[in-house]
């Protein structure tokens, strides 16, 4: 499932390429035909991300709410202008080429997690993209515009220069301003949206009064926005916190540490496009981690392998229908 960093990256890409522009809208798949008809010809006026959800405002107070869910992704094509905050990564990030190689000193992730052309659930194929002043010739006809529809596209938004195709979302719906406000009010704090001090206090207050296990609370979007399965496992390991401890029994300083770690990790994720959760890596280790996710996590997806710290076998178990990875010694 795309986590919070991906949605913030999508929002920034939308802000650069669609805001203040009139768009064409269609639903090639047909499942959002009525909504697309209402959006067609309108101007995008703003975009915002909160946790795992994105809200796009159109003129006349009409909003589009998108929740990618487990399988959703946005595919971008055309002369895409990339926001510097998600393109540079201090020189470490380039466009994904799907082979996990390094080009011009920029690391390319084999899994596509840092892709500028497709952000969301990993996919085997990408829509052809012509990155403005960066690269061409990724396949297909450079002159074909608009690009052909590939697969099940729920919603296509199109300007003269850029095309964005939405596939496989959990939610794609139109909302009024009041409905948007009500949706956001149900979400927990987001470090990139809310006042930092107020958000931390809100998170600590909620967690410290809950009997629910902290491993479940971190995945509850009404408690904190944007954390998914990867960040949950990694944050708990970094805090050396047992995932089964009730929230109210987790020491306050540890709860605050979890929030502050989420602030740091989310910023790194937005910058690099990757869920990098390991610290103090050498330049060589950093480059390996950027290219391969197996080298960038402490416990996630490492069931049956030795803990990187103590050597104990990392375990995996089911927690509310999701896989929870943790070290039974470091997090005892």
From TrEMBL:
Keyword presence, Metal-binding: yes
- List, for all copies, the residue spans of the domain called Formamidopyrimidine-DNA glycosylase catalytic: 2-81
Q: Which cofactor does it need?
A: Zn(2+)
Task: Cite the EC number.
Answer: 4.2.99.18
Q: FPG-type domain: which residues? A: 298-332
Would the keyword RNA-binding be found if you checked this record's keyword annotation?
A: no
Which of UniProt's keywords are assigned here?
A: DNA damage, DNA repair, DNA-binding, Glycosidase, Hydrolase, Lyase, Metal-binding, Multifunctional enzyme, Zinc, Zinc-finger
Annotated family: Belongs to the FPG family.
Indicate what this protein is called per its UniProt record: DNA-(apurinic or apyrimidinic site) lyase
Which organism is this entry from? Microbacterium koreense
């Amino acid at each position: 499932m795309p986590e919070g960093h991906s949605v913030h990256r999508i929002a920034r890409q939308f802000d650069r390429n669609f805001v203040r522009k009139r768009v064409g809208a269609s639903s090639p798949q047909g499942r959002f035909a009525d909504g697309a008809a209402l959006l067609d010809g309108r101007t995008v006026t703003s975009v915002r991300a909160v946790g795992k959800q994105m809200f796009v405002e159109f003129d006349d107070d009409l909003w589009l709410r998108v929740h990618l869910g487990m399988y959703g992704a946005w595919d971008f094509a055309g002369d895409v202008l990339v926001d510097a905050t998600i393109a540079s990564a201090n020189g470490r990030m380039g466009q994904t080429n799907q082979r996990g190689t390094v080009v011009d000193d920029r690391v390319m992730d084999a899994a596509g997690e840092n892709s500028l052309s497709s952000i969301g659930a990993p996919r085997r194929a990408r829509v052809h993209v012509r990155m403005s002043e960066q690269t061409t010739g990724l396949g297909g006809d450079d002159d074909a515009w608009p690009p052909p529809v590939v697969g099940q596209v729920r919603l296509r938004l199109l300007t003269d220069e850029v095309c964005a195709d939405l596939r496989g979302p959990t939610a794609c719906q139109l909302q009024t301003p009041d409905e948007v406000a009500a949706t956001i009010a149900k979400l927990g704090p987001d470090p990139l949206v809310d006042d930092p001090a107020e958000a931390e206090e809100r998170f600590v207050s909620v967690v410290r009064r809950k009997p629910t296990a902290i491993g479940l609370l971190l995945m509850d979007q009404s408690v904190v926005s944007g954390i998914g399965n990867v960040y949950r496992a990694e944050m708990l390991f970094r805090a050396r916190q047992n995932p089964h401890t009730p929230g109210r029994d987790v020491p306050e300083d540890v709860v605050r540490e979890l929030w502050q770690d989420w602030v740091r990790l989310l910023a790194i994720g937005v910058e690099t496009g990757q869920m990098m959760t390991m610290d103090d890596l050498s330049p060589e280790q950093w480059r390996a981690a950027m290219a391969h996710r197996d080298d960038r996590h402490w416990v996630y997806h490492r069931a049956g392998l030795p803990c990187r710290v103590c050597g104990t076998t990392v375990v995996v178990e089911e927690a509310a229908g999701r896989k929870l990875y943790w070290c039974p010694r470091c997090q005892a």
